[in-house]
Design brief:
Layout (H helix, E strand, L loop, with lengths): L12 E6 L5 E6 L3 E8 L4 E8 H10 L2 H8 L6
Antiparallel strand pairs: 1-2, 3-4
């Protein structure tokens, strides 16, 4: 599976490892993704989604209505 948050769209970015001698080599910064099983009241069932921690905080703050909209618009498969 891809390393992309299904709610926020966060994905890996590219940066540099910097050594003590200031040598720079490319590296990837991966998002902190968690698989979560969330109860969506609008659909009356559990949905398993891959979310970044920022996405989990968004659901905790705003509820699952935003997640239900994405599922209904087929941007997230159930």
């Amino acid at each position: 599976m891809s390393r992309v948050c299904q709610l926020t769209g966060k994905k890996p970015t590219v940066g540099n490892n910097v050594s003590h001698a200031n040598n720079r080599t490319k590296r990837r910064f991966l998002p902190n993704l968690q698989k979560k099983r969330i109860w969506v009241q609008e659909l009356n069932k559990f949905v398993t989604v891959k979310l970044s921690t920022a996405g989990i905080k968004t659901i905790a703050k705003n509820g699952t209505s935003e997640l239900a909209k994405l599922i209904n618009s087929k941007k997230i498969s159930v």
